[in-house]
Design brief:
The protein is of the alpha/beta class. It has a single domain, classed as Rossmann fold. The strands form three sheets. It has a six-stranded mixed beta sheet. It has a two-stranded antiparallel sheet with strand order 1-4. A two-stranded antiparallel sheet has the order 2-3. Helix 1 runs antiparallel to helix 2 and helix 2 crosses helix 3. The chain is globular.
């Protein structure tokens, strides 16, 4: 699905304004994976800004309806997709469930929390896609429970080839509200970065595991 340019640029600017996304090519972050990265994304921050979270909720609702039609329920991926998933489900007037990373270690041992019925259609909400691994684990859990996963929608993706290939292998469609390319354009336009930073930022996206080694 082709992104809506105006929506993607506007959301990219919001994420930069509230520092949900930080760009530091000269002073990179270290991810949990050990990768050095010029970008750090924490979309949980969007929940603290009513204007931004409303924009995300409305954008998700529009994109989901355009791409997948109205599903029977929305599923949020723990933890970043839970709050946004609830907001979207409320906007669409449909039920909500969420998916844990692993089944609960006590009680009923649930991995999917909430009420659902077999063969219901569901769209998954995620805050961020990097390689797609954790997102697709949630998709698998929903499919294993007998649900019809129509696809996944995220706030932001880095656009790694690995993620694109992983979603293809899993036969799961996904759409994102904005992405790394839109972010770079907006960051340059609004002077969050300089022209001199672009080459380094582009090199990272092409080969993030080897960047700065």
């Amino acid at each position: 699905m082709k992104l809506n340019n105006d929506r993607s640029y506007k959301l990219a600017e919001f994420l930069l304004q509230i520092k949900a996304i930080k760009l530091q090519p000269a002073n990179p972050f270290t991810w949990a994976s050990g990768w050095k990265s010029p970008i750090y994304c924490d979309n949980r921050k969007t929940l603290s800004f009513p204007k931004v979270r409303t924009y995300i909720r409305q954008s998700f609702s529009e994109v989901i309806t355009e791409k997948f039609g109205k599903p029977d329920l929305i599923a949020g991926v723990a933890t970043g997709g839970i709050a946004h998933g609830v907001l979207v489900a409320q906007e669409l007037g449909i039920p909500f469930v969420y998916v844990r990373s692993t089944p609960k270690a006590h009680g009923l041992g649930n991995q999917i929390e909430g009420y659902f019925e077999e063969n219901q259609s569901v769209v998954v909400i995620e805050d961020l896609i990097s390689t797609g691994g954790s997102s697709l684990e949630a998709v698998k859990a929903l499919r294993d429970a007998g649900l019809n996963v129509k696809g996944l929608a995220s706030i932001f993706t880095y656009g790694f080839d690995e993620a694109i290939n992983n979603f293809k292998k899993a036969k799961c469609e996904f759409v994102t509200l904005t992405n790394y390319d839109y972010l770079m354009e907006q960051a340059l336009k609004k002077k969050y970065i300089t022209e001199a930073d672009i080459e380094s930022l582009s090199d990272w996206k092409e080969n993030p595991s080897e960047w700065m080694k």
